[in-house]
Write a structure and sequence with these properties.
Distance between the termini of chain A: 38 Å
Number of helices of chain A: 0
Order of helices and strands of chain A: EEEEEEEEEEE
Strand content of chain A: over 45%
Oligomer: heterodimer
Largest sheet of chain B: 6 strands, mixed
Helix content of chain A: under 10%
Radius of gyration of chain A: 13 Å
Number of helices of chain B: 0
Number of strands of chain A: 11
Order of helices and strands of chain B: EEEEEEEEEEE
Radius of gyration of chain B: 13 Å
Largest interface: A-B, 21 and 21 residues
Distance between the termini of chain B: 40 Å
Chain lengths: 112, 109
Amino acid sequence: SQTIHQWPATLVQPVGSPLSLECTVEGTSNPNLYWYRQAAGRGLQLLFYSVGIGQISSEVPQNLSASRPQDRQFILSSKKLLLSDSGFYLCAWSVQSGNEQFFGPGTRLTVL
Amino acid sequence: QKEVEQNSGPLSVPEGAIASLNCTYSDRGSQSFFWYRQYSGKSPELIMSIYSNGDKEDGRFTAQLNKASQYVSLLIRDSQPSDSATYLCAVNGGNQFYFGTGTSLTVIP
């Protein structure tokens, strides 16, 4: 069966510090991978998606970036965090576009 | 801009009743529709997917799709306190999903 992991589970960072969140998927090959952010009391905002290694599509211009160095690894990064980057970051995978997406446990980020 | 609209609630129903959650979407080309359940502080969990007009049943859950009216709904029969959560509607559009902001459901014992 497929499993998706995210770490860390929680993170508290000062404004201006760098960020690296990691997501890995087990039990499947060449998945579509997604990064979402959910701000308090708000809906899911798609940040990036990837259909293959090195292929990243950005949905929202911001100070975040994403990379996919391996087939089942997806990384979300920032060089300098803003207060507005606080939120619940979710990684998801699907077999292909249009199919069900399955979410990881999430990382709760607080920027102070 | 592709939109997915849900009544934010909160929706309260007594235990054992039927809970009805509704969702409308703007993109007529959408082909895949999903319902997720999200407990407070947790990640969304897939409940149902539906691709064709009509009803799809899975246990106590029934998803209903009407593409002509651009409307998808979720019925929860025999609601339990453990069903208390936020329910997210998702609609595909190209390579991505568009999510509604969710409906908060409380089942009162």
